[in-house]
Specification:
3 helices, mainly alpha
Amino acid sequence: MKPQIFTPFAKAQALGVALGFATALAATLATGVGVRIFLIASALAWFGWEFILGPRAPSHETTPRALTYAGATGFAFPWIGFGLAALAAWAAP
């Protein structure tokens, strides 16, 4: 069986997701926003990006610009989830 080899783009995006998730989860717990809605919204942001913008992502490149793009998009997914969770908490009666 051949071992899975991840591209530098995927590694940069995974690092961004890890850092973004840690900071957004800390903000979620500190503000009292629902953790479940945060997780669901973060997953939806990730899947939405994969289907809409993912095919056009420069995932085959290893330039600093492409890797910065990967890290920034990975960092943004959990924060989009936090924003949607905060909006849902604000809109709740």
